[in-house]
Amino acid sequence: TVIKEGMLTKQNNSFQRSKRRYFKLRGRTLYYAKTAKSIIFDEVDLTDASVAESSTKNVNNSFTVITPCRKLILCADNRKEMEEWIAALKTVQNREHFEPTQYSMDHFSGMHNWYACSHARPTYCNVCREALSGVTSHGLSCEVCKFKAHKRCAVRATNNCKWTTLASIGKDIIEDEDGIAMPHQWLEGNLPVSAKCTVCDKTCGSVLRLQDWRCLWCKAMVHTSCKESLQTKCPLGLCKVSVIPPTALNSIDS
């Protein structure tokens, strides 16, 4: 649920420039883009953030949002608008419980749900396999399956986000004497630094290239050479009692 949204002027300290951006506050995250109709929004995590007016003689109606990672100076069109934004941002800080996210039907279509983000270590595009470069924004990440892509590559990404229904699994479905079961759904590369292969228990993944695999469901990580040795059926991981697998859903509607 969007708590507040609207246009604000975003100041850039480095270049002494200001840019008009469309902001929306949802949950504990502040999103912004060029317009309300933009497909891709940058985001600011407001966990442990502080908000205050920028100065005592505030003729610009500006306020500052400071997080552990960055500082934003934002200007509203008038004082009333500025006070409403500050109040909304402070409400988020004090709120302990949030309503569940109301997912749109797009979340069940197989399409990726992109957001722009930075990465603390070398990360590689799952489309072209080249490194994501940049200082503040290392390309796009899918908020559901963590598929990575350059902004230029996102349009070429296949709609292979985390499965949602029986039909989305397709021909890979496993049928045996126990009925139907789900195989692993693999995503290549960008494994955590501490990744260990489920089969041989040796370090896997690489910061030098897109390498090795992670299951989106059970979180198993394997070398490419060990992948065939792992049982095909996915056990759904440690939290399996809390997981509704796509094999249990025939269709999704409103």
Q: What percentage of amino acids are in beta strands?
A: 25-35%
Helical stretch tally: 2
Within the CATH hierarchy, at the fold level, what is the topology of the largest domain? PH-domain like
Total number of distinct structural domains: 3
| Strand order, sheet with most strands | 4-3-2-1-7-6-5
**Which series of helices and strands comes N to C?**
EEEEEEEHEEEHEEEEE
Average pLDDT figure: 84
Shape: elongated
Low-confidence stretches: 96-103
CATH architecture identity of the largest domain: Roll
Structural class: mainly beta
Radius of gyration: 22 Å
The total strand number stands at 15
What is the CA-CA span between the terminal residues? 17 Å
> How many strands, which pairing sense, and closed or not: the largest β-sheet?
7 strands, antiparallel
Task: Determine and state the CATH class of the largest domain.
Answer: Mainly Beta
- What percent of the residues sit in helical stretches (DSSP H or I)? under 10%
Any idea what the CATH superfamily of the largest domain is called? Answer: Pleckstrin-homology domain (PH domain)/Phosphotyrosine-binding domain (PTB)
Protein name: diacylglycerol kinase (ATP)
GO molecular function: ATP binding; ATP-dependent diacylglycerol kinase activity; zinc ion binding
Catalytic activity: 1,2-di-(9Z-octadecenoyl)-sn-glycerol + ATP = 1,2-di-(9Z-octadecenoyl)-sn-glycero-3-phosphate + ADP + H(+)
Family: Belongs to the eukaryotic diacylglycerol kinase family.
